[in-house]
Amino acid sequence: MEHRHAKVVVIGAGPAGLAAAARAGEHGCSVLVIDDNPDSGGQIWRGDHGLRARTWRARCAAAGVAFVHETAVIGESAPGTLVAGRPRGPMRVRFERLVLATGARELFLPFPGWTLPGVFGAGGLQALVKSGFDVRGMVIPVVGSGPLLPVIAAYLRGRGARVPIVAEQASAASMRGLATGLLGAPAKLIQAIRLRAALWRTPYRTGYWPVQATGEDRVREVKVSNGQRTLTIACDALACGFGLVPNIHVASTLGCHITEGRVDVSDLMRTSREGVFAAGEALGVGGVECALVEGEIAGLAAAGAEDEAADLRGRRARARAFAGALSDAFRLREELRRVVDDATVVCRCEDVRWGRVRARSCWRDAKLQTRCGMGPCQGRVCGPAMAFLRGWRVGDSRPPVYPAGAKDLAVALGSAGASAAPDERGLRERTNMEPER
Amino acid sequence: MSESTADAVIIGAGIVGAACALVLSSHGVRCAVIDAGIVGGGATSAGMGHVCVIDDSEPQFALSSLSVGLWRELRDRLPRGAEFDGCGTLWIAANAAELDAAGRKAERLAARGIRAELLDGASLAQAEPRLRPGLAGGLLMPDDSVVYAPVAARWMLDQAEAAGSRVRLGGSVVSIGPSRVGLENGESISAPWIISATGVWAPQLTPGLPVRPRKGHLAISDRYPGLCRRQLVELAYITHAHGHSDESVSFNLQPRPTGQLLIGSSRQYAGHDPAVEPRVLALVLARAIDFVPALAGVHITRAWTGFRAATPDSLPIIGPHPAQPRLLLATGHEGLGLTNSLGTARLVASHMGLEPAPIDPTPFLASRFRSAIHG
Ligand SMILES: Cc1cc2nc3c(=O)[nH]c(=O)nc-3n(C[C@H](O)[C@H](O)[C@H](O)COP(=O)(O)OP(=O)(O)OC[C@H]3O[C@@H](n4cnc5c(N)ncnc54)[C@H](O)[C@@H]3O)c2cc1C
Ligand SMILES: Cc1cc2nc3c(=O)[nH]c(=O)nc-3n(C[C@H](O)[C@H](O)[C@H](O)COP(=O)(O)OP(=O)(O)OC[C@H]3O[C@@H](n4cnc5c(N)ncnc54)[C@H](O)[C@@H]3O)c2cc1C
After folding, report:
1. Distance, CA of A156 to CA of A159 (rounded, Å)
2. Number of Cβ atoms within 10 Å of the Cβ of A212
3. Greater pLDDT, B21 or A206
4. How many angstroms does the Cα of residue A147 sit away from the middle of ligand 1?
5. CB atoms inside a 10 Å sphere around CB A203
6. CB atoms within 10 A of CB A220
């Protein structure tokens, strides 16, 4: 098993993680970044060679930051020693300071038909296209909520798809409130204007939300409604996204305090656990601007440069205020809780339908009685959806953070020296175990 | 302050409380079942759900064989979600000494009318080809089974409710007086009989009861249908379960109807902290891989812990509280409470004079620990 060690270990190589790594490295710390993707950049800078992405990557390189990719942190074998899984087998990573920059994932809300083939998470579809999926000539409505919808619509159009509509569930009225917020954030404003230009032929409808997707073998049509009018739109695929959910599993497994689904931090990005910092979307959805400045603060504070870190607090406060205005503007509407019917699948892993879970008293009761959230994704998809639909408290804090091979876990979690490691018999057979779906 | 009445109050909606509600309500007793949390939210949701005959002592044999029979009688009534699976148990003998012990066990069981088939090494390998080669043999107990306890408990309570009982969740009982319990919100319920089926929490309501939490770690995998067919348990398990060492790990593998594999388990006296301990989880997994090498590559999706309610003599406590004859205790089931829940409920019914005792109730009486209980 491979062992690594660094003064500052960063989990996540998105903007927050890169900024933290660069800043800590520039202060002379040895820095190791762990990320489960093949490349750095996280959700937004994946395969992106724009100026800012290039700048932060270059700063990391100049500061001697080391990276391990395709590596997922699955737990901690002893305080200060992370266990990570990767295709070649497990590794252990010792840290003195740790920065959690684990980002966010898409929020999926169920509606009738959302599990049809051809219905994609908006961000997931963008990632697919970035890695080669061809959308030329396809008709792809973009529905849901949030500032990412027009970004993704523009991207899809740029790759040859036809986007007949961007349906934003938030009302025009709540979006207008945002205009004032935008003044405080020039970079965002410029981005928004650019997008408007790129989208001039695509109707951006506020106050419309998806109520049904239909099709025999795959999605052929989507209905969006504003409560009075329903529009039926023919399509070849459908991109939907309802915002983002902070990834807090690693933080909670490490025992960091979580409040309302977000990692708690001080103004210098310290979590409740000594020596562990957090930055970016894991603290609540905030966008790149926010992730970068929080990453910088966390990296500086982890390196002991607290005064320098403290100087950035004003910038962070402004970025967070803007993020707050955004999330108010895009607040999910009540009606989205009522689009599900009894036959709507809410847990894809275990094929559990709304009719069975709606009467349960809490998330745990739903798990125990219906298997909702008990499948391979461990409630990562349906958990936040149920939190929205039913107001349940959904959370978890146990290793493994991600499914991992039994032997890898036994070796990596076992105490060194003890005869925890099974003998070679196990090794020979480990290759041919593919789970059945 | 509101006050209500029932024929019996059952504290605890785990599998033991639920089984009591099922049996008592079938006698026309209107129960009020109270739980601080959700149905089956205690040990019942954490356990493996293996329903098995254990003969490490006479009383344990009597109670578990009674219970295994009662589960079989129930099997056709249980809902599909209770996932009753008559897969049987295959006890594994790692070496010649264990196989000898298995042989004696088989004879004892046969003498009492329990089916048990001794397998030599070759037949064991044939029965479960994924076991590591070179094991000495095994003992197949075809009448053992597996059941998914949280759904079984919910179903039992549904039956009880249909027969006139009530289930109240989300509020704890904070006091037990003669013929009366007090809830945390100030309400009280009076009933001539009170049954405490509070598992590992029993000493909080009835101080002095010698019940200690014995922690266990389990892990579950993604789906690998057909990897094994029976519940596989190493014979050394019995020694581990019966002994009281601070920590032991034995191999225990259960094929779930979903194709998942449930892997156990550890036994620790280690306080009340439910955190998964990486070191112990590693031992549990390593032990399992040692017996079934193919497990090395299976993906573990989740690990968790639970607390068994352990007593000094490894037998449950079933019967009247020494100081309050109409307060019946039903706790201390350690690692066999799912199995023994049905037999326990029959004993409880017999203490209430509803039916004759199905087995000798004496070994389970709390009075055996009298010195420890100040009632
Ligand atoms: C036969 C059997 C089969 C099983 N099969 C599966 C399976 O296929 N898949 C599976 O996933 N499980 C499975 N389980 C496991 C099972 O349902 C639970 O994991 C089990 O109940 C153990 O409970 P737990 O302690 O893990 O609690 P959980 O059921 O995980 O509940 C813990 C609760 O605590 C809350 N919580 C914990 N930590 C935090 C925190 N830091 N912040 C906020 N909230 C927190 C969570 O919100 C959650 O509601 C199975 C169990 C059995 C008995
Ligand atoms: C790892 C592990 C593996 C196991 N494997 C098996 C197995 O394979 N086969 C088997 O037969 N058994 C097994 N067991 C044991 C079995 O799970 C338990 O013995 C059984 O579930 C006990 O049920 P119970 O109803 O007594 O307790 P619990 O399920 O713990 O229920 C007690 C209930 O009482 C409630 N309660 C407590 N105090 C109060 C109060 N003051 N007011 C209101 N409510 C209260 C709690 O909320 C809880 O719901 C295993 C246990 C563990 C931990």
Report:
1. 5
2. 18
3. B21
4. 34
5. 12
6. 16
Per DSSP, the three-state class of A108 is: coil
| Cα distance between residue B220 and residue B304, in whole Å | 9
Q: Which of A157, A160, A138, A140 is nearest to A195 (CA)?
A: A157
Residues A357 and A394: beta-carbon distance below 8 Å: no
DSSP-derived letter for residue B366 is G
Count the neighbouring beta carbons within 10 Å of the beta carbon of residue A34. Answer: 26
Report the run of H or E that residue B65 belongs to, with start and end: helix B58-74
Provide the token pair at B352. Answer: 């209430």
Size of interface A-B (CB pairs under 8 A): 151
Instruction: Quick: pLDDT tens for B38-82.
Output: 999 999 999 999 999 999 999 999 999 999 999 999 999 999 999
Residue A402: the pLDDT is: 87
Q: Distances from the Cα of B129 to the Cαs of A203, B85, B121, B136, B292, in angstroms?
A: 62, 20, 11, 14, 9
Burial state string for A131-151 with b = 16 or more CB within 10 A and e = fewer than 16: eeeebeebebbbbbbbbbbbb
Packed helices A148-158 and A122-130: angle between N→C axes, nearest 10 degrees: 30
Q: Which residue has the tokens 């009366």?
A: B180
Going by CA atoms, what residue is nearest to atom 28 of ligand 1?
A: A364
Ligand 2 geometric centre to CA of B217 (Å): 14
3-state secondary structure of B8: strand
Query: Hey, is the C-beta of B151 within 8 angstroms of any chain A C-beta?
Result: yes
Query: pLDDT (tens digit, 9 = 90+) per residue, B119-169?
Result: 999 999 999 999 999 999 999 999 999 999 999 999 999 999 999 999 999
Which amino acid would we find at residue B221? S
Nearest to A409 among B41, B224, B282 (CB): B282
Task: Enter the tokens of residue A47.
Answer: 């395969």
Rounded to whole angstroms, the maximal C-alpha distance in chain B is 69
**Alpha carbons B14 and B25: distance in angstroms, whole number:** 16
Q: Which residues of B touch A374 (CB under 8 A)?
A: 302
Chain B window 203-222: which residues touch A at a Cβ cutoff of 8 Å?
Answer: 219, 221-222
- The set of protein residues with a Cβ atom below 6 angstroms from ligand 2 is B 11-17, 34-37, 41-44, 46-50, 172-173, 197-201, 205, 216, 218, 265, 306-308, 331, 333, 335-339
Per-residue pLDDT, A422:
40
E strand or H helix at A345, and its extent? strand A345-347
A426-434 long-range contacts, CB within 8 A, separation 24+: A426/B289, A426/B290, A426/B293, A426/B295, A426/B296, A427/B296, A428/B293, A429/B293, A429/B294, A429/B296, A429/B297, A430/A405, A430/B296, A430/B297, A431/B297, A432/B297, A433/A405, A433/B224, A433/B294, A433/B296, A433/B297, A433/B298, A433/B299
| Residue A377, C-beta contacts closer than 8 angstroms, at least 6 positions apart | A348, A349
Q: Is the pLDDT of residue A225 over 50?
A: yes
Residues 381-400 of chain A with CB under 8 A from chain B are: 398-400
Are the beta carbons of B215 and B253 closer than 8 angstroms? Answer: no
Mutate to test the pocket of ligand 2, among B231, B336, B342, B344 (most ligand atoms within 8 A of CB): B336
pLDDT at position B21 over 80:
yes
* Contact criterion met (CB below 8 Å) for A341 and A177: no
Eight-class DSSP state of B108: H
pLDDT in the model for residue A430: 37
CB within 8 Å: B38 and A365: yes
Query: Residue A239 has which token pair?
Result: 């991109």
